[in-house]
Amino acid sequence: MPVDTKESMVRVEQEIAKCDRCPDLVLCRKNPVIGRGADRAKVMIIGYVPDIKSAEETGSPFRNSPEGELLLQLLERAGCSVEENAYLTYIVKCVPKTCEHKDRSAEKTNRLRLLGENNICLLTDRECTGRIATPTLLERENCLHHLSREISVTTPHVLMPLGLEATTTILEMYLSISPSHKTMSDYHMRVYSSPSFKIVPLYPPELIIQNEDTYSLKEYEKDFHKIGKFLEMS
Ligand code: SF4
């Protein structure tokens, strides 16, 4: 009997919501960021780690942020929407932070949510000033399990990792391609094929917003137009 997709997705979401595999990340997270979008997706957009201000705040990817808005607008031009055929997620679902409030005492680390109302750290009663950091390899490995589940439920035709870290992680995971290029310009818009889906890496939208000298919005818009055509054929 085919497993109901919606039910499977709810199960994946519940697993992520209560996941505590990475003690350091659980310690300071406000919300794990659960993917959002169509239960059956044509395209899956995969960032590396959630944005600390918007995604972590809402627990939902690419929301309430200029880069999220840009991404959704361009996806729409490519004939995609989270309501119909696109799914947005991250490789690591909790924001890795360098946080001065980490307290490793056994009793305190048993608490799963350490930030109370108004961003107050429950360990120290001070506002958390943690800044975004790079996840460890183990944290990344821990969370790839959730990504695999999201992919197996939504069955996208195309994976689109955003940025160098997300791209090299996905290529290594699904095509055993070791990172051979040092810059995103070597990967952007190249098409890789796996037996189950295509992989098309992209510059992340924040780079286009923050540094149009590196890659122009006009070119980025054209890329999404090409992606729309490509998705029609996939
Ligand atoms: S980063 Fe992923 S694996 Fe680690 S605690 Fe968060 S949801 Fe779990």
UniProtKB/TrEMBL annotation:
Residues 34-188 form the Uracil-DNA glycosylase-like domain. Keywords: 4Fe-4S, DNA damage, DNA repair, Hydrolase, Iron, Iron-sulfur, Metal-binding. The keyword ATP-binding does not apply. It comes from the Bacteria. GO terms for molecular function: 4 iron, 4 sulfur cluster binding; deaminated base DNA N-glycosylase activity; metal ion binding. PANTHER family: TYPE-4 URACIL-DNA GLYCOSYLASE (PTHR33693:SF1), TYPE-5 URACIL-DNA GLYCOSYLASE (PTHR33693). This is Uracil-DNA glycosylase.
